[in-house]
Structure formats: structure tokens, C-alpha cells
Sequence to fold (528 residues):
Amino acid sequence: MKNFGFVVGGILPILTTTAAYAEKNATTDAKDNERPNILFILSDDHTSQTWSIYGGVLAPYAQTENIQRLASEGAVLDNCFCTNSISTPSRAAILTGRYSHTNGVYTLEDSLDTSLPTFATEFQKAGYNTALVGKWHLRSQPQGFDYYSVFHDQGEYRDPTFKNSDRPWPGYLNFGERVRGFSTDIVTDKAIEWMKSQDKNEPFLMCCHFKATHEPYDFPERMRHLYDGVTFPEPENFYDWGPETNGRTFRGQPLEEMVRRWEVASADPDKWWCRYPELPFSGKGMSKIAKRQAAYQKLIRDYLRCAATVDDNIGRLLKALDDMGIAENTIVIYVADQGYFLGEHGFFDKRMYYEEAARMPFVIRYPGKIPAGGRIKDMILNVDFAATLSDFAGVQAPEGSQGHSFKDILTTGNAPKDWRKSIYYRYWTHHSIRPAHIGVRTDRYKLMFLYGDPLTMTGSESTPTEPTWEFYDLLKDPKEDHNAYNDPEYRTVIRDMKKEMMRLRQETGDTDEGSARMAAILKQEGLL
Fold:
């Protein structure tokens, strides 16, 4: 059988001393005066459970040689989170440095206001050459990029269509340049071609955004036989069948829904929005347990082959930087827009404020500036990215940015004394299986208020659900298997967490001002 490489025991060590950082951070005055190039690589749904550098049951199987290289030559964020775990809002938060309630992108159906400043517009104003290729998913025309070549909506894995900056913006129409091949490879080709065309005396910002590893988890022919004959281990809470097993208060999206989708697509591919690889698939005649097991094995096999293609192309990007002789002065970031459930709690997909979905795997390399081999434990948010990139480049952060630069944390290993000790989250889209909710998290505890109301959000179900609460002690229950909201021992902690949730709402400006409906819900729960 193929050697699947990285083992859990090989997780990179944590640098804990200031001296270690200082020694590795030595650099020349000449280097200090250079403005770095930035290669910002973003994928969709490439969850930390399949980045071998984070460990887990799938770590020994994940093909992440190039991610591992970036980690060994740079730093890994161990506690990076999105503020709204769905693609379009997360991307808007990354670009603007603002939470959903201040950038106006709450759900998948919202569009980014083209007048809002982003880190791209600031870099462009500061003299950077800027480009974006691949997945955009923000509906409006990209701003701040000298060159762009982006997918319509989600884009296609095979023979994708690109909307290009040298042609009139077609609006929300799937119209543009059709390119034959596999999307991850094509996006990489376009990114490399553009970077090689740049004047080496001028800094660049390249945003290279992959569609992978989003559903339908497709892969090119060269990956087809990867994992042949492999049976993947299941997560500990794989046989969680519903709220009655652990006290959670929502149904979620179980793997059986994935089976339904495959079966519909198997019967008639034109009845579904995407083309899944290696159909037909059917769960008919299987027992309850056998059906879930079969669905998991197919999902993981497809997903890991899709992810291996991403890592393969990260390697191509790194080689291009080496070949161009600019790797030393180029910041490389690889991050996913949010996490993803891969059988944990019996789920797939994302959207809930559980660890698997809210966590953003993140690795960054900047030779001579960011010490090699570091693991950062401080809590980082996607709204911090814009300020951090701007700080490294000596560029003004976007106006209205609510995030904070973590440059000094990366370069010295020390967080400012006033660095956040808690984080705020809100998922705005409401469906009965995944109610709209607010979350607050510290290093140990997590509180979720599932207020369960669509309010005025696009893409939501119109019928509210009864408000509920969930609480987890992440030290004792890191897999979030027991909703401890009603446990008497946590009464004081929960009271304090509710106060912190309301404080963060005020601090971030998420006050639902003018919403009588939300005010009534909060009053009913004793929060107002």
C-alpha cells in the first residue's frame, strides 16, 4: 500500500521562548527596507482535520507535503477562527477586515458593496501590482485588482468559465472565457503566469483562490487511484444519531443527506446543481449503520483526492517562487475560508459554531521575518487578516477594519497584553436544521445562543425555531459531545459567558439596532 506519509506524532513543535523567536528572526537592514510580495492562497472548506500538521484520525492519510513544507519554514496558527462559517461572508470578512454586520455580507446570497475598502484596494493605492484568480463568490465586480480572472459563483471543477478583467463585467451571469482542464490546475497556471510577468522591482499581491475542496469534491485523473483499497478510520463521535444522544439542540446535516444527493444525481445528473465523481451510488438495502459507513468512505476518498490536488498545486506555486528567485521576499499564506464536518457528529458541511466548522487552518511563511517552525496559540480571527497583511507591507489597513494585526505575534511569539481573550461569532442564515445563532468562545469555554429566527436575512426559512442554548467545556469535552448548558457546576461560568457575549456584541457593533423582533428574543432570554 502507498505510504501516506505524515504521522500524528510528527506534528510540528511549539516555539515557546522569546529567545528562540529572536534568534531566528535576525535579518539584514536591506531586507527590512524591502516591501514583500504577497501570495495569498485561499481554498474552500479544506478543513483542519485533513491538514496533517493538525493531527487527527485522517492525518496519516492526508497528502500535504507542501503544506508541511510551509509549516516547517514558517508558522502555523492553532486557534484561527472565522466569524461566520460560510464561504461568501467569510471571504468578505477577510477582504474588508469587518464582521458581517458591518460589511453587509451576511449570507451566501448577499453581494459585497463595491465602494467598501478592502486590503486589495489599499495595496493597489500603495503601488502594489494586484491580481485575483479563481473563486470570488461575492457577486459584485472585484475591486482593487489590476487583473482578475474569476469563476462565476462557485465555479466548475472541470472546464471552468472565467470572468476576466479585460472584458466588461457580465454581472451575475455565467459568461466568459471557457478553459479546458481541471480548475485547481488552471487557477495555478494563471497565478504563475501573472506572477512571472511582473516587474521584479515592484511588489505584487496575488490572491490565488481555489474552488477545492468544496462539494462535489472532484479531482483530476492523476488522483483517481489515490487511496485505492484504503479504509479510513472514523471520528470518535461518528455514530451520533441526533440531539437525543448528546443534548445538542439542532438536527444538523447528517451524512444520510449526502447519500440522498448522490442518489438523485445518480438517477439523473441534470437534477442536481453539481456533478459528483464516481457515481452511481446507492444506499438502498443497507442497514442504518452500513449506509453511514459507506457514505463516509466515499466522502473521505473523494475529499482527500480533491485536497491532494490543492497540495500538489501549492507545490507548483512554491517552485515558481523559487525559480523566479523571489521566495525570500514573498509572504506565502495558505488558509481555508472555514472548516468542514467530515463525519464528526455524523455531519457533513459547515455553518455551525462547532470546532470543525469554525476553525480556519492557516499557515504562513516569510523567510527571515517569521521564525521557522512556530505554532501560534493566540486566538486569531479572519477579520484580522487585512490588518496583518497591511502591517507587513507598510500599507494602511482598510478603513473601517475591525480586526487587529497579529504581525508581532508571528515575528516575536509574543501577543500584546491586551490581545483578545474571547471571540465573537454569528451565523445569520436560518434553517430549522441549522438555526441562526450567536457564539462566544474563550480558550476553554464555548456558549452558543441559537436564537432561531430569520429576521431579514436572505436565503433563510421563514419559520422561526424555539431559542435554545448550548455550552461546552472544551477542556473536558473537546469534541463537543455533551451540551452542558443545564449542568449546575457551570451555572456561574455560563452567566459570565452570557455577559461576555453581550459585551462583544456592543464592542463589535452587532446590536441589531432597529430590530424589534431580536429585541423581543433577547428580552425573553433575560439578556436585555
Remarks:
- Residues 288-324 form the longest helix (37 residues).
- The chain is about 30% helix and 15% strand.
- The CA atoms of residues 98 and 400 lie 7 Å apart.
- Residues 1-32 have pLDDT under 50 and may be disordered.
